[in-house]
């Protein structure tokens, strides 16, 4: 038997094994299909504590081209502005995608705001303390002309809240190795004000009161395992 023939046989076996392994490791089970269906619009109350929807102000919207991309990424989106009796306003945006595979990943606010013409003045990590557990969050400050917008957001991949692109990829990989395709949620709150520290405190209070108004299963959807443990 010639060396060339032996090498070709070994190469063929290796390629077949690689193909089989790739197929075995390709996730096929959609977590979203194993869960009860839900509606963001029904899940998040229009009024809670002393907050109520202010229909006169709509949170930042993407341009038509970017909106078409977002519609491919997300299955559901919710955008509202709430106002309390003191006249304080908080903008809430939630996006849910049932397929967080490599092709359909969450769209980070750092990218979205800059694409809309904002300057990103701050990008940092934070922790949002709630009665249901501590949530890892990102704290941003975006500015466009005189509009200064402090932003808090977090992402869930499957049942875990993550705060970085690296953690997002690790969580997605962990699910993929078990043959599962996770769903994902991006929750963003923001206010238009100059004082970022005061804005974050207001946003944290708003989120805490919103969580108090949700059903336990819906808190888990927004917070992941943090809410299950909290």
UniProtKB/TrEMBL annotation:
Protein name from the UniProt record: EpsI family protein
Leader sequence segment: 1-22
Lineage: Bacteria, Pseudomonadati, Pseudomonadota, Betaproteobacteria, Burkholderiales
Keywords: Signal
Ranges for domain Methanolan biosynthesis EpsI: 10-216
Matching NCBIfam families: EpsI_fam (TIGR02914), EpsI_type_B (NF045609)
Gene symbol of the encoding locus: epsI
InterPro entries given in the database record: EpsI_type_B_pred, Methanolan_biosynth_EpsI
A Pfam family: DUF3485
Keyword Amino-acid biosynthesis: no
Lineage top rank: taxon: Bacteria
UniProt keyword annotation of DNA-binding present: no
């Amino acid at each position: 038997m010639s060396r060339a023939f032996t090498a070709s046989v070994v190469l063929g076996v290796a390629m077949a094994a690689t193909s089989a392994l790739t197929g075995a490791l390709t996730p096929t089970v959609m977590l979203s299909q194993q869960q009860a269906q839900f509606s963001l619009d029904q899940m998040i109350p229009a009024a809670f504590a002393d907050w109520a929807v202010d229909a006169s102000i709509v949170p930042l919207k993407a341009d038509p081209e970017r909106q078409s991309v977002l519609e491919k990424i997300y299955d559901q989106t919710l955008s509202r502005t709430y106002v309390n009796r003191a006249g304080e306003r908080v903008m809430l945006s939630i996006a849910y995608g049932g397929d967080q595979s490599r092709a359909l990943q969450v769209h980070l606010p750092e990218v979205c705001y800059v694409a809309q013409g904002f300057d990103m003045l701050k990008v940092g990590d934070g922790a949002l303390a709630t009665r249901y557990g501590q949530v890892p969050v990102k704290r941003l400050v975006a500015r466009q002309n005189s509009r200064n917008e402090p932003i808090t957001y977090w992402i869930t991949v499957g049942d875990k809240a993550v705060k970085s692109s690296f953690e997002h990829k690790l969580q997605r990989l962990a699910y993929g190795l078990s043959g599962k395709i996770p769903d994902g949620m991006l929750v963003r709150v923001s206010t238009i004000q100059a004082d970022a520290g005061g804005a974050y405190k207001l946003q944290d209070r708003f989120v805490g009161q919103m969580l108090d108004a949700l059903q336990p299963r819906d808190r888990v959807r927004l917070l992941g395992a943090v809410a299950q443990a909290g």
